């Protein structure tokens, strides 16, 4: 057998090879699996997803609560088409306590069996509390409507208000459909009524 001692150069080369082998083994069998497990159990993405789902859940609960409140509350009824006389009578009653008001009716718009009648309302009243009461009365109107915009401004001892309200009607049970515009070809024709008290 040949038995000889390694030279200094060979010893250094063997030592470098052993260190490289240990480094490769460490990288393959320790570092990579640990990194993969950390990535696998990274909770940041899960926390973001959980937070999004909790927000959705709260939103859904809020909507369900609001729907239950509206079912129990006084929500307007959708009447058959051409209910404008009754709507006008209700609006006149609501605004009877104001200094002045103006109702501007757009042409009714048909969308399937539903009819939308947009009304732009301007009014002047004595205080914010009376303006708030007016908004509440319109919201609780017995004829189904949606308050789309509200603008209140104070001037001296009066409050000026502008509202855009949409009244809803249906073609079920309607005697006619005269004067209706189709939803996609609706014009901006309007009828205006002004009253000063």
Question: Could you outline the blueprint of secondary structure elements for this entry?
Answer:
Elements: H1 8-40, H2 43-72, E1 79-80, H3 84-94, E2 100-106, E3 109-111, E4 114-125, H4 128-139, E5 145-155, E6 158-170, E7 181-182, E8 190-196
Parallel strand pairs: 1-6, 3-7
Antiparallel strand pairs: 2-4, 2-8, 3-4, 4-6, 5-6
Largest sheet: 8 strands, mixed
The H-and-E topology, N to C, reads as: HHEHEEEHEEEE
User: Could you tell me how far the N terminus lies from the C terminus, measured between alpha carbons in angstroms?
Assistant: 126 Å
> CATH first level of the largest domain: which class?
Alpha Beta
The pLDDT mean sits at 84
SS summary, helix count:
4
Shape: elongated
Could you tell me the radius of gyration in angstroms? 37 Å
CATH topology of the largest domain: Alpha-Beta Plaits
Helix content class: 40-55%
Structure description:
- The protein is of the alpha+beta class and 197 residues long.
- It is 44% helix and 29% strand.
- It is built from 4 helices and 8 strands, in the order ααβαβββαββββ.
- Strands 1, 2, 3, 4, 5, 6, 7 and 8 form an 8-stranded mixed β-sheet that branches.
- The radius of gyration is 37 Å and the shape is elongated.
- The model has no long low-confidence stretch (mean pLDDT 84).
- The chain crosses the membrane at residues 12-31.
